[in-house]
Amino acid sequence: MSDLLKNHVAGAWIAGQGAGSALVDPLTGAELARVSSAGLDLPAAFDFARRQGGAALRALSYGQRAATLAATAKLLQANRDAYFEIATANSGTVRNDSAVDIDGAIYTLSQYAKWGAALGDAHALLDGPRMPLAKDGVFGSQHVLTPTRGLALFINAFNFPAWGLWEKAAPALLSGVPVVVKPATATAWLTQRMVADVVDAGLWPAGALSIVCGGSAGLLDALQPFDVLSFTGSAETAATIRRHPAVAERSVRTNIEADSLNSALLLADAAPGSEAFDLLVREVVREMTVKSGQKCTAIRRVFVPEAMVGAVGEAIAGKLARVTVGNPRNESVRMGALVSREQLASVQQGIAALSEQARVVHDGRATPLVDADPAVAACIGPTLLAAHDAQAADRVHAHEVFGPVATLLGYRGIDEALDLIRRGEGSLVASVYGSEPRALADAALALADSHGRVHVVSPEVAGTHSGHGNVMPQSLHGGPGRAGGGEELGGLRALGFYHRRAAVQAGAGVLDQVAAAPWSL
Question: Is residue 137 part of a domain?
C-alpha cells in the first residue's frame, strides 16, 4: 500500500487516519498514493486559519501580499518539471494539456501579483465615489471594501488540480483572506505537492494556506458566517451545498461553478471554405481534445446553419480522425486519458444516451489506442454527433457528457439558434464565429444574459484570440443558471468576493481620512 499524502492544517502536517482512498494512474491502474482526512479536528483547524492566518495576512498591505504572490509564482515555476510528472501520472494528460493547468496557474498568480502591486500600502479599498447625504456636502457616504475576517474554503474539481487552486487562491490571498483547499480526491496529488512546496518555503504566514485531502465530511459544518465558500463540481452536489445550514442559516457567502452546456455558433455568412468556417472547425476540435474534453468550458453543442451540418461535420471529423489517443508518455500521442475508468464509463453512457437523438458522425470509441491497454486505460477517442432534430434533442440541451464529446445542431435562422443555445439554461461560455462585425456584435449581446463570457472569433483575431475554453484572469469566469450563478476572476473585481462592503456615513473631514489610505477600484 502506498503512503498517505499529509494534510496541512493548524500550521502542521498531519496524516489522516485509516487506509484512505487510492490515487491511481488512469493509464495503468497503478496506485500512486493515498489520501485521508479522517480524524482531523476541522473546527480547530478553521479557527487557527481565521485567527492566526487571517490576522497575519490583514497586517500586510495589498502590495506586500502581491509581492508574496509573485514569490509563490516564482517558486512554482522553479518546480514546474516535477508538477508535469505528477500530472502525467495522476491525470493522464499529455504535456500540452498539463501546461494548460500548470502554466495557467502560474500565469494567473503572476497576473494578480502585478495587479496587486499597484494597490501599494492600502489595507482597504474604496468602492465608487463619495455620495452626498446633505445639501451642503458636509455629510456623506463612502462605500468601502475590507477583507472578510473569515476564511476561504475551496472545494475543487478533479480536472484542474493546479489552476483550480491558484485561480481562486490568488485573489483570496491578495485580499488578505486565509485559504483552505479541499482538492478532488482523484487528482489531489498535484494540489498537495504545490501546497507543500509553498508551505515548506515559508512564503506565507502560518494558517494562510491549508489543505485537506480525502473526504469532505465536516468541512461545511465548520464554516462560520464571515467565511466564504467556492465550489466547483456537479449541479447535484451544488444543490446539496445550497441546502446546508452553513449557507441556508449562517449565510456563508458562496460561489458555485456547476454543469455547463457551452456552445459554439457559426453565423450564416461563414460559408464552407471561408476563414470563419475554418476557425470554428479548428476551435471545436481543440475544445474536444484538450484535456480529453474534461474542461468545464469545453464546447458541447455546435450550432451551424442547417444547410452546413454536413460540411461542418465532415471537416471536424476529418481532423478528429488524425488525433492519436493513448499513453501521454508516448510523444506520438496527442490526447491522453480520462481521469478514471469510472469517468470513462460515464462518458460511454453519455454517448449512448445522446445517440438516441443524434447520429454519430465520428465515433471515438473505435479509435485504436497508442501504447495503452484498452482493458485497463481510461482512454477514449473524440466523438462527434449530429442531432436528428435540434428542437427535439432534449438530451443534447440538458445532459453534459464530461469528455471528448460534442454534438452538431442545425438551425434555420439566427433567432432559432439563439433560442436553442438558451435551452442550455445558462452556461460559462459561448463562442460566435463569423466575419460581419454587426452580426457578431448582435449575437454576442443577445447571448450575454445567459452566459458568463461570450467569445467572438472573426478573421481579424484569428492569430491572437485566447481560445473559447481558455479562462483568463482578465475576464469573468462563471455563468448563470445551470452553470451555478457564480463569478470568478475578472481582474481586481474578483477581490470583491473576499471583502465585505460597507457604507461609512460621516462628515467630510472623516471621509477625507477614510479616502486617504485606500486604493479605489
Answer: yes
Residues 102 and 211 occupy one common structural domain: yes
Q: What pairs with residue 211 in β-bridges? A: 8, 181
Give per-residue pLDDT as tens, 37-66: 999 999 999 999 999 999 999 999 999 999
Tell me what percent of the residues of the chain surpass a pLDDT of 90.
Answer: 96
95, 52 contact by CB (below 8 A)? no
- For residues 390 and 500, state if they share a domain: no
How confident is the model at residue 516, as a pLDDT?
Answer: 83
The dihedral sign for the CA sequence 374, 378, 384, 386: positive
Q: Is residue 33 a part of any domain in this protein?
A: no
pLDDT the model gives residue 421: 98
The reported pLDDT for the residue numbered 1 is 63
Instruction: Report pTM.
Output: 0.94
Residues 114 and 218 placed together within one structural domain of the fold: yes
Q: What is the pLDDT of residues 86-124, one digit of tens each?
A: 999 999 999 999 999 999 999 999 999 999 999 999 999
Task: Say yes or no: 197 and 334 in one domain.
Answer: no
Alpha helices, DSSP H, located in 79-187: 80-91, 95-117, 163-175
Give yes or no for residue 303 having a pLDDT over 80: yes
Same domain for 404 and 417? yes
Q: What average pLDDT does range 243-249 have in this prediction?
A: 96
Number of independent structural domains in the chain: 2
Among residues 436, 452, 474, the one where a domain terminates is 474
CATH of residue 421:
3.40.309.10
Separation of alpha carbons 253 and 230, rounded Å:
9
Cα–Cα distance, 280 to 264 (Å, whole number): 8
Active site residues: 257, 296
Asked, for residue 11, whether it belongs to a domain, the answer is: no
The pLDDT value recorded for residue 3 is: 86
Contact of 228 with 254, CB cutoff 8 Å: yes
Mean of the per-residue pLDDT values for the chain? 96
Residue 90 lies in a domain: yes
Shared domain check, 236 and 126: yes
Of the candidates 345, 337, 320, 334, which has an alpha carbon nearest to the alpha carbon of residue 373?
337
Distances (CA, A) of 223 to 11, 50, 184, 435, 503: 18, 11, 19, 50, 26
- Is residue 506 scored above 70 in pLDDT? yes
Which residue segment(s) compose the domain that 248 sits in?
41-258+486-520
170 close to 108: Cβ distance less than 8 angstroms: yes
Asked if residue 370 and residue 278 are part of one domain, the reply reads yes
Q: Cell for 215? A: 473526504
**What is the pLDDT at residue 351?**
98
Q: What is the DSSP string of 271-298?
A: -TTSHHHHHHHHHHHHHHHGGGG--TT-
CATH number for position 501:
3.40.605.10
Beta bridge pairs of residue 154: 181, 230
